[in-house]
Amino acid sequence: MNKYRSHNCSELTEKDSGKTVSLSGWLHRKRDHGNLLFIDLRDHFGLTQCVIENNSKFFSVLEKLRPESVLTITGQVVKREKGTENLELSTGKIEINTQSIKILSESKDLPMPVFGEQDYPEDIRLKYRFLDLRREEMHKNIILRSKVISFIRSEMLKLGFLEYQTPILTSSSPEGARDFLVPSRLNPGKFYALPQAPQQFKQLIMVSGFDKYFQIAPCFRDEDARADRSPGEFYQLDIEMSFVEQEDVFKVVETLMINLFKNFSSKKIMNNKFPRISYQEAMLRYGTDKPDLRNPLLINDITNIFTRNDVKFDIFKKLVKSGSKARCIVTKNTKDKPRSFFDNIDKWAKEQGASGLAYFTIEKNEKILGKGPVGKFFSEDSLREIMKICNAEVGDSIFLSCGKISEVEKILSISRDKIAKDLNLIDEEQFAFCWIVDYPMYELDEQTKKIKFSHNPFSMPQGEVDKLNFNNPLEIKAFQYDIVCNGVELSSGAIRNHMPELMYKLFSIAGYDKKKVEEKFSGMLNALSYGAPPHGGIAPGVDRIVMLLANEKNIREITLFPMNQNAQDLMMKAPSEVEEKQLKELGIKIDIKKN
User: Model-level pTM?
Assistant: First the structure.
């Protein structure tokens, strides 16, 4: 028998009554009842209650022992008395009558308790991450993450994919976020970069004749922290396929996501075939290309209403005349909501930096009229026209915004979420996936007024290549797509441009001459020049998938050892200074100007 344990702390049941067993784990908590001391012993698997009487020679030792000390307890399994069972535990109908105890490791006073799920400041949690990870919810989340990754690997192999590993030390990327640079000792003055993503390598795998690739890939980007991304590194399910069209990629990803989310969650999946929403429609109807489809509220364009003579809302009319757009959100059957409901949303919108949200409710007495601060500015005919455009009915309310298209989209997108939450319209027991498709290949830079790539410069444009209208590039759509779930972007992907001559042409429209393209992308262009298959892929974020499954809002809750907002590892004290000797070997001199 193993000298530390005969069973783990979640294993014993009534069937084991009478057995003498050994358990090892952490002293989770203790309760002193005078003549009896109750101990919850915890290991990776669960909890078992152990009991020791005050006449035992170990009683005084345990009384003084601090929580989180590590013990081996040997004793007899007995049934708990009726009424004292804990049915929330798999071991809740038994306890251990303690016969002997061995202290394996004593704990100091804890900077934060492990028992309970109280929230503690981020700096404490990250500095003592090894304690934070002992807490039940954190422990479950990390186990979930491991199981999700194992499941993904298994499913990808079933779908005919093979896993390949791409380099971690590579060349610096001229596009995208900032690289993490690694100096080369053998090549003084030169640097490797940690990969922001294995994008070029996975395309090269396809060019090399392999058919389906995947990898649970670490990616490194020197960017600011966000709730859904660590400031240094993250993991993605990297996928690439040869001889495929957009729908082939969708089929693989939909199959994987449905199996994955059904396996790890009891929540329903809204649509087994994920809706395809064009980028243009997404921006119009939701104000964002990351829509939460659990939210039934839609945005409608009512710009033309403010060109009518019978509308007297002069502020909006002047804005529309100068080129602004007017859009609105309809809330169904909200006529009985108090004035404070509407005013609070207007106030909230101003706090977000907008000028507020105008509103009115549609009522009917002898005729259709608008009730509310701006309702009086609309004639009955104009209200009927709004009702027709928006599918609105008597008793519904209209929230309006007018301004630059980007500003209107932004405020109505977040207002849509805010209003839906206030009205309790979002079903939290659902996953709503969708694809955002038909991204424009180019967009106009608002500052320089020059044409630039809007999304991914290496994507294949839609349509027959020899019939593309390069004279009107803003009309060109690309085979680019995002997969979104509950308003969270899981990934972007694309069918790749595998034709060097077409790549030169597309880059020239964005202001890159042939020489510049060859300087920046020589490796990829060279490979594509020796026979490249049509190929495409995607890379769903593992961290974001686990966040959704664990119902967590912050990536810190599903990552073993995350950095803080300043890209610092408080536990390992990284980044850190290095010795002068190491710098000399690398030919590096530090020159930091102090304020």
Answer: 0.92
